[in-house]
Structure formats: structure tokens, C-alpha cells
Design a protein that fits this description.
Largest sheet: 6 strands, antiparallel
Number of strands: 14
Strand content: 5-15%
Distance between the termini: 106 Å
Helix content: 40-55%
Shape: elongated
Radius of gyration: 34 Å
């Protein structure tokens, strides 16, 4: 047995070139271990337990990153896994998973300890090769994990040959994508933002492909084993795996064909792995023949955009609702704090700071509902339309079948458009969604303007509220602290509003039976929503929850303001109230003093009418009353200055 293993070891790249004596020691120490697809050999965070060399089949090295699992390397015959066991006793930094059934030669921890003692030359040789392999893999993993602006890194350098309409090309052997994705990455180095930066769109594409595979199976158009493998691959993608292979630029020509083919190729190759076949064996599972059966980019891509938008709007609504709740909590906290209201930046009439913040909350809550209404609009899909809406190449039953399965996959009450030709060419829903989001961004930006103005100063401005200090505000002015959180949220809103002009122009530019500009629509809509969602979280967590009230300053503003004279109108009339205001402005005397001097009202009447809290209107708070620690006071209107 050792002699046979020695001959086998000579053919494996990791140990090729070692002297026979060392190979003989290794052959005595290793154990042969067959494995199946999806077998896990070790998991990230577990203690190191094995070192192995792949003899046949394929192994993926995966790492958790950004909330999803990323495949950082695809290894085949001659490659090693678990090399870290030779170097230290730390835990595994990655997970090793079988992707094509095969066989390993395994050294467990005890076997490595024996080699260290009995064959130190072999141990030294293995350590040196392990260090070089790990270094190569780390370089590739860095390119994979960094993401934006970086090419996907592959460590082995092996290639496979694929062909398409334009001819043959070499594709990295480890890649789950294929030749059409390769061409797209070369043709569209535009934004530097690849599809993998939009997990919601990748998940939506996978959902569409799962539903299509199930519908095609139901209609007898796909073999059960192929349909099952496509569905399993799609489930993995929806769970966050393999996103690193979605590389096409978000801005692309071709109406989204490159994005659709990227999804088709990744799912086809992962399905092949699940079936125990090599990547690129398209006679078994083909990106077009099987994954894309009964479909066209022209129904897949807009449907996926709608599903992704729906998911992103869920997140935006949640973030907006949380911000509104934080503002409402401040409204309750400040319920008894009286201040001057202002119109056109001039003193108007008294109000409470609580009512001001409650109004901020309610205006945002309105848009939580408006965004929900927009979601209903994008639950209409055009699956089954294929190229232009006539359903060519699709079974007449496919549209209803795929809608039913897609509703089951997503949990959404989807409906098929009544006119598929119209639905394939029309992008009006995207314009309407952009309009609602733009309305939300406008309100949020106005809120930030108000927070900056109310906190201005702190001594030479309004200074009515204080925002949490986040960072020093100047490289030259000591002590200065700027409202950086509202400022950054303002800029997010500006960017979103400008980007949505692009959505309008792209929707208008469509011609005849198709709008080819949906890629830029998707990029601007999805990107804008993601930025705004993150910005709302930052505004809530790093600004709103820490706002405090400058109660004494607001008290002085009310006491000094002539705006309180408005409350006298029902009692003394407009002309007399105007005369009082004019004299108060000219002399600096108090409104109360002038009213009493002129005998217009008694002292009791003045005190009752000009009570600031009464003028501010009913004091309302969230259920449970005013939170403990809230400052309450009754402002006193002085008789004179």
C-alpha cells in the first residue's frame, strides 16, 4: 500500500519533487478519505485538526465576510488544505467544503506530531511548501474579499476553455462564472462597482432562477436532477454564498444581458459541482439551455430589479421608522420645554420643543406608508414575456407557473402584468418609486437643515439644542465642533436626488419594445436606497438620540419675543395689538407693561392670555408621560426690560 501511495503522491503538485524517502514516510502517515459534495472538513473558528492533499474532486475554501460566506479559493487535485496545522495551534481562519466528490490524503494532528518526531526533514519540507501555498492563497483571498475595484483573485493559475458566439476563451478553472461574464468584465470597466456589491439583486436573480427551474420541472422541461441542482445552487446564492463570482459592472450595455448571463453561468457551474461534475461541463448543465430555459434577460432582469427594490425598501422603511421613533421619543422628552416657533426665520408664536420634534417624527412616518404603497406597484412582474412580451420560446403555462413559484420563494404576493408587451417596455414603476424615495430624501434633508440651524452657535447662533459632539471641527479653530452627522446625511440626500434625475432620463430614453437603460436605473435606485438606509441609521444613532435641549436659552427667547402679542388679537383686536407690537419694538419695553399702561387688559387677563405654555397649545407626550429627568417650567413674561 505505501508503494502505491508513493506513486500517487509523485503526481500531486503540493509534494511533487520530494525525494522518494520522504514520500515513503508521508505515505505511511496519511489516511485515504473519500468525501462527498458539501462535506465540511473543518470550519472557521474550530481548532486545527487536519492537513490534507486533494487527490481527486474539488474543495472550496470559504470565509465569512460582510455577513455572507465568500469562496476565497477553489482547489483541485494536487492542492493542500489545512496547511496551518503544520505551522501553529491556532483555530482555522476558513472553512473547507467539498464541492466535487473525490478523495483526500489526510494527516491528523497526531500524524503531524509523529512526522515532526520521526521525519523532521519531511516536516520541514511540508512547512516550506505550506508557507508558500498560504502566501499565494492570501494574495488571492485579499483580492476576493476587498471587493470594489479589485479583480477576483485565483491562486492556482489553472484555466479551462469555454466558447460562445464569438469564439473560445480561457476562464480561470476556479471561477464559477464563464466566458460571457469574462467578456463583460473586459467590455465594461465603467463604474468599478461590480454586481457583488448589490447582494439584494444577486439574491433576487437567484430567486427568479429557482422559480424558473421549478416551473420548468413542473412542465416537464427540465430533468429532475438538473432542476434540483439549479435550485440548490440558487438557495446557496440566496444564503449569501458565491457572490464573489458576480463580477459584471453595474453599468453595462446590453439591457442587463451580462448580469443575467453572470447569474446563469454561476448557477450552472455550481449545479455542476453539486452533481459531481467539473465546472464548464455544459453538456450536463448549460447556462442557457437549462438555467435560462423559458426566460429572456428582458423578463428576468426587470423582475429581479423589482424584487431587489422591494427588499431594499423593506430595509429603508425600517430605518425610517426607527428614526421617526427616536424623534418621537425626543418629542416626549421635550414635551414641557417652551420655545418660540418661527416662520420665514422670524419669531412667530410660542410652541413646545416637544411638538417640534413630534412633527419631525410624523412627517417621516408618513413616508413609511408612502414607500409601502410604492412597494405594491413593483410587485407586478413580466416573467413569461421572454424577448418582447409575446412569450416566444416559453410554454404558454410558464408565466403563471413561474409567478406562483416565485411568490412561494420570496413570500411576496406577486402578480403577472396583464399586458406583457407593455410591461416589458415600460419603466414607469421605477420612475414612481424614485419619486417617492426622492420625497423621503427631501424631508430627511430638511430635517437635517433644521437640526443644524437649531443647534447653530453655540453662542452666536440659535443654540436651542445641542447635537452630540462627534469630532473636532477645525484644523485651525480650537474648540469648534461641527454638526457633521446632519451634514453627511444632507450630502447623501443631495446625491440621491441628483441620481434619480438619471432614472427619469433613462426611463424616457427607452425605445419601442424594450428599455435598454435598466442597468443605470437599477444602479441608481438600489445604490441610492442603500446609502439613504445607512444614513438614516447614522443620523439616529449618532445624532438624534443624543440631542439635548438648552432650556434656559429657549425661555429667554420666549420672554424677549414680541411674537407673544399675537395671542392678544382675539381680545384687543388687530389694530391695537399692532400698536403694542410697534411700541415694544421701538422702545424695548415688554408687551405686558405696554398693555397694562394703556389699560387694554387687567393684570389677571394678561397673565392668563400671555402664559407661554397656554399659547404653545396642548402639551402632548408619548404614552407613559414625560420621561424622568425632563425639565418643566412655566415661563414668566416680564413686565419690562
Amino acid at each position: 500500500m505505501p508503494n502505491a501511495l508513493v506513486e500517487q503522491l509523485r503526481q500531486l503538485a503540493f509534494v511533487a519533487g520530494l525525494p522518494d524517502q520522504l514520500l515513503w514516510h508521508l505515505a505511511r502517515a496519511v489516511a485515504v478519505r473519500p468525501f462527498a459534495t458539501d462535506d465540511v472538513f473543518f470550519a472557521e473558528g474550530e481548532p486545527r485538526a487536519l492537513f490534507a492533499i486533494v487527490v481527486t474532486g474539488g474543495v472550496a475554501i470559504e470565509k465569512s465576510h460582510g455577513g455572507r460566506t465568500v469562496r476565497v479559493a477553489s482547489l483541485g487535485p494536487g492542492d493542500a488544505i489545512g496547511e496551518g496545522l503544520l505551522l501553529d495551534d491556532e483555530v482555522h481562519g476558513t472553512t473547507a467544503r467539498g464541492v466535487i466528490a473525490g478523495e483526500l490524503l489526510v494527516l491528523d494532528k497526531a500524524a503531524v506530531a509523529r512526522i515532526t518526531k520521526e521525519a523532521p526533514q519531511l516536516y520541514a519540507a511540508l512547512v516550506g511548501r505550506a508557507a508558500r501555498a498560504i502566501a499565494r492563497r492570501l494574495r488571492a483571498a485579499d483580492a476576493t474579499l476587498v471587493g470594489r475595484g479589485r479583480a477576483l483573485g485565483f491562486g492556482t493559475g489553472r484555466m479551462r476553455r469555454e466558447h460562445d458566439l464569438l469564439g473560445e476563451r480561457d476562464v480561470p478553472e476556479e471561477a464559477l462564472y464563464g466566458v460571457q461574464t469574462l467578456r463583460a468584465t473586459e467590455n465594461f470597466p465603467i463604474s468599478g462597482v461590480p454586481l457583488r456589491e448589490f447582494p439584494s439583486l444577486i439574491g433576487a436573480l437567484a430567486a427568479v432562477k429557482i422559480a424558473a427551474a421549478r416551473a420548468n420541472l413542473e412542465l416537464g422541461l427540465l430533468p429532475p436532477n438538473v432542476a434540483d441542482a439549479i435550485v440548490r445552487a440558487g438557495d446557496e446564492v440566496r444564503a449569501g454564498r458565491h457572490h464573489e463570482h458576480f463580477l459584471v459592472d453595474m453599468i453595462q450595455g446590453g439591457a442587463g444581458t451580462s448580469t443575467n448571463m453572470n447569474a446563469n453561468e454561476v448557477l450552472a457551474n455550481r449545479a455542476l459541482e453539486l452533481l459531481g461534475r467539473a465546472r464548464g461541463a455544459y453538456d450536463v448543465v448549460h447556462p442557457n439551455e437549462h438555467v435560462n430555459r423559458s426566460q429572456s434577460t428582458n423578463d428576468v432582469y426587470p423582475t429581479a430589479i423589482r424584487l431587489a427594490l422591494h427588499a431594499e425598501l423593506d430595509a429603508l422603511r425600517a430605518a425610517l421608522g426607527a428614526l421617526a421613533d427616536a424623534l418621537a421619543a425626543k418629542g416626549a422628552e421635550f414635551a414641557h420645554v417652551v420655545k418660540m416657533g418661527r416662520t420665514q426665520l422670524q419669531d412667530a408664536v410660542p410652541m413646545t420643543l416637544g411638538r417640534e420634534f413630534t412633527a419631525f417624527a410624523n412627517t417621516l412616518r408618513e413616508d413609511v406608508d408612502r414607500l409601502g404603497e410604492a412597494q405594491a406597484l413593483i410587485r407586478e412582474i413580466n416573467m413569461g414575456a421572454t424577448a418582447i412580451g409575446t412569450g416566444i420560446t416559453a410554454d404558454p403555462r410558464f408565466a403563471e407557473a413561474v409567478r406562483r413559484h416565485l411568490s412561494a420563494v420570496t413570500g411576496l404576493p406577486l402578480v403577472t402584468a396583464p399586458d406583457l408587451v407593455e410591461a416589458t417596455s415600460d419603466t414607469g414603476a421605477f420612475v414612481q418609486v424614485s419619486g417617492v424615495i426622492k420625497r423621503t430624501a427631501t424631508k430627511v434633508s430638511k430635517l437635517c437643515n433644521d437640526l443644524r440651524l437649531l443647534s447653530s452657535g453655540p453662542r452666536a447662533g440659535f443654540g436651542e439644542i445641542a447635537l452630540p459632539a462627534m469630532q473636532p471641527g477645525s484644523s485651525i479653530m480650537p474648540g469648534k465642533v461641527n454638526p457633521v452627522i446632519p451634514e453627511v446625511v444632507n450630502q447623501v440626500c443631495f446625491d440621491l436626488i441628483g441620481g434619480y434625475v438619471t432614472v427619469t432620463m433613462a426611463a424616457e430614453a427607452g425605445q419601442l419594445q424594450l428599455n435598454v437603460f435598466e442597468p443605470i436605473i437599477a444602479y441608481r435606485l438600489l445604490g441610492g436606497i442603500q446609502q439613504l438606509t445607512r444614513a438614516l441609521g447614522v443620523l439616529r444613532e449618532r445624532c438624534v438620540t443624543g440631542i439635548t435641549a438648552n432650556v434656559e436659552r429657549m425661555r429667554r427667547y420666549v420672554e424677549d419675543s414680541i411674537g407673544v402679542v399675537t395671542a392678544l388679537l382675539p381680545t384687543i383686536g388687530y389694530e391695537r395689538a399692532t400698536a403694542v407690537a410697534k411700541e415694544a419694538m421701538a422702545t424695548g419695553r415688554g408687551v405686558t407693561e405696554i398693555v397694562l399702561e394703556r389699560g387694554l387688559l387687567t393684570r389677571e387677563q394678561v397673565d392668563r392670555i400671555l402664559d407661554p405654555e397656554a399659547m404653545a397649545g396642548p402639551i402632548t407626550a408619548e404614552p407613559g408621560g414625560v420621561p424622568a429627568g425632563t425639565q418643566e417650567y412655566r415661563a414668566v413674561v416680564p413686565e419690562s426690560r
